[in-house]
Amino acid sequence: MASKSRKKAARRRKPQPPRQAAQPPKPPAKRDEPPPAPWGSFPLTQLTVLAGVVLLIIGFVTGGITPMVMGLLLGSAGGLELSIREHFSGYRSHTTLLASVVLMVATGVTYFLFGWVLWVCLVIGLTLFGVSFGLFRRAFQTASGGLSFRVR
Asked: What would the pLDDT profile of 126-152 be if each residue is shown by its tens digit?
């Protein structure tokens, strides 16, 4: 009798598919082209850099400081956007550039907004540079499949 009840129980159970061994995640394929922009094929980054160059030229010709500063800011914003996109997609590492932006922003904010002594602001900025360098490098390693940097 025991064997009949086991057979009935075995028939009631649904067959389960065979278990597959867990496979390690594959690193992303190496890309030969930069990652696409979130706004599609519209050349927003290139136009931003072009506007920055035009404003720089206007500032040099007229001697005005405002167009020069705006040109530097626009050109830097265009380059920074491309660097961020390439870095976090794992295409190319821009760890030092991104950590330097953190250094400049931290030093500028502590010096101009809080009015602290410059050497204190630089110590704070350099500390944040070191921390952000490690975090940006780890983010690139995650995005690129374990690489610390990528050469063309």
From this structure: 999 999 999 999 999 999 888 887 776
* Amino acid, single-letter form, for residue 106: A
Task: Using alpha carbons, select from 61, 80, 58 the residue that is nearest to residue 71.
Answer: 58
Question: What are the b/e assignments for 56-85, b being 16+ CB within 10 Å?
Answer: beebeeeeeeebbebbeebbeebbebbbeb
Entry pTM? 0.73
Task: State the DSSP string of 45-101.
Answer: HHHHHHHHHHHHHHHHHH--HHHHHHHHHHHHHHHHHHHHHHHHHTSS--HHHHHHH
pLDDT tens digits, residue range 30-59?
Answer: 556 788 888 889 999 999 999 999 999 999
